[in-house]
Write a structure and sequence with these properties.
Blueprint (H helix, E strand, L loop, with lengths): L1 E9 L3 E8 L2 E9 L32 E10 L4 E6 L10 E2 L11 E8 L2 E3 L1 H12 L5 E6 L1
Parallel strand pairs: 1-9, 6-7
Antiparallel strand pairs: 1-2, 2-3, 3-7, 4-5, 4-9, 7-8
Length: about 140
């Protein structure tokens, strides 16, 4: 299964996008602000939080690119969620529910963008996405700026 996130609005504090599943529109997304980061993190070993110049913790969207997704239990959210793997500069990136970029910390928040700077009905949409993805073995996401 292939997910595609097309970022369509990049604001000072947040980024709005559209999420597609196998080419069909599924929902809107909200993320932190997109910042330019080096391709590789020369300052931080893999598996540890990045300390690169330009990255602001919990205020930076993940880099565009393609990532493998697995469905894994999140101790923080106490439920199974989609987890992105091998994201440069980041660890623990999930797709989950929330309302604004403040709920993101680098993760992708799903919902309906009917109010400026927010997504609504996020938990319902997150649950629907999880139901779809739990049936799949081979999942990836491509993020386009």
């Amino acid at each position: 299964m292939k997910l595609l996130l097309k970022r369509k609005f990049k604001g000072e504090k947040y980024t709005i996008g559209d999420l597609y599943i196998d080419g069909k529109f599924f929902c809107n997304t909200i993320e932190d602000r997109v910042r330019k980061l080096p391709l590789e993190c020369p300052y931080t070993p893999k598996g540890q939080a990045c300390k690169c110049n330009g990255k602001v913790y919990a205020q930076t969207a993940i880099p565009d690119g393609s990532y493998k997704i697995t469905m894994e239990h999140s101790p923080r959210f106490k439920r199974v969620l989609p987890r992105l793997h091998n994201v440069p500069h980041f660890i623990g990136i999930l797709i989950h529910s929330g309302t604004t970029e403040e709920h993101s910390a680098g993760c992708i928040i799903v919902g309906e963008n009917k109010v400026k700077g927010k997504v609504l009905n996020s938990r319902i949409i997150s649950d629907k996405l999880n139901t779809i993805l739990l049936k799949e073995q081979d999942i990836s996401i491509t993020i386009e700026d």
